[in-house]
Write a structure and sequence with these properties.
This protein is mainly α. It has a domain of 49 residues. Helices cover 65% and strands 0% of the residues. Helix 1 packs across helix 2. It is elongated, with a radius of gyration of 24 Å. The two termini are 47 Å apart.
Length: 84
């Protein structure tokens, strides 16, 4: 597995918190930091997906065509025309 080294300078408070979590989980600090990064990323992606759903719901589309009809309509609307 390829790895990259990242150096981050933290004040005492920001250093204490992940150390506390690592000790509580009986895990290495680096493993804990990676897990916290993954969790923060997933939280952010969840929030983005949730916002996208709310945006789609607010569009109030009344009559949504069947997927094959919608696909054909999109292809026709975005047809680049003849290439030559």
């Amino acid at each position: 597995m390829a790895t990259a080294r990242l150096e981050v300078r933290l004040d005492e408070e920001h250093c204490r918190k992940p150390k506390h979590i690592a000790a509580e989980d009986q895990a290495q600090l680096s493993q804990t930091i990676r897990r916290l990064i993954d969790e923060a990323y997933e939280d952010r992606m969840y929030a983005r997906r949730k916002q996208a759903v709310l945006t789609l719901m607010s569009l109030e589309i009344e009559d949504v065509p069947e997927p094959d009809v919608l696909s054909r309509q999109l292809e026709e609307a975005h047809d680049p025309g003849p290439l030559y």
